[in-house]
Write a structure and sequence with these properties.
The protein is of the alpha/beta class. The protein has a single domain (about 15-220), classed as Rossmann fold (3-Layer(aba) Sandwich). The chain has helices at about 25-35, 40-50, 70-80, 100-110, 130-135, 155-160, 170, 220-225, and strands spanning about 1-5, 10, 20-25, 55-65, 80-90, 90, 95-100, 120, 140-145, 160-165. A hairpin with a 7-residue loop joins strand 1 and strand 2. Helix 4 runs parallel beside helix 5.
Amino acid sequence: MQFDTSTSSSWKFGHRGRVAVFIDGNNLFHAARFHNIDIDYNKLLRILLGDGRLLGAFFYTGVDAGAERQQGFLLWMRRNGFRVVQKELKTFYDGTRKANLDVEIAVDMLSLAGRYDTAVLVSGDEDFVYAINAVAYKGCRVEVAGFRSNTAPRLIDVADFFIDLGDIAELIRKDVSQAGDYDVPSFVPPDDMHVTGSGYRHNGRDQHRSASPNRNYPDDSERDEPARVKNER
């Protein structure tokens, strides 16, 4: 797989058919913050899509109903072709608030397998190893995208291909000097969720989970329609 620097920001994936993108929102946010990168999600989606036809782009995150900035970001995501799957934070006995969406991501990857030819999982969480294998057994190609230093080695090993976001950081970084209609907001994570320095599970416990269901999935006919990717202005 090669990046063509002579044209636009598109990867030479070859024929990838219908593509479904599954973004573990909080996991990606913390990994990007570790690398001091504020991600432009439209740019990210265009690169992950390559020459494929987008079946759907799913963004999973925990939410705090009272966080207006976060709600504004999620509204922007919905209006720009992403299907947001969210779960309200739960408060635990020690006062921490968390939302775990591993199950939702894995179930969606499996339930949609067959409708897409290529799945792109944007996460560094080792918990998805089994789900990736299960999707691969159904005959689908599975790629993992993430920052290598924040991605579990086993996750990289089981994927058909690993896309190191660190290698294309300048292509997915938000342009802070750009204003107007293409004013891309930054992801606002639930403020009480924390992450380990590695960005993936450490000693069997993952401190930074995100994502989940307000499903509102499209019906079968709608699922087969390609999602819109907003052109950069």
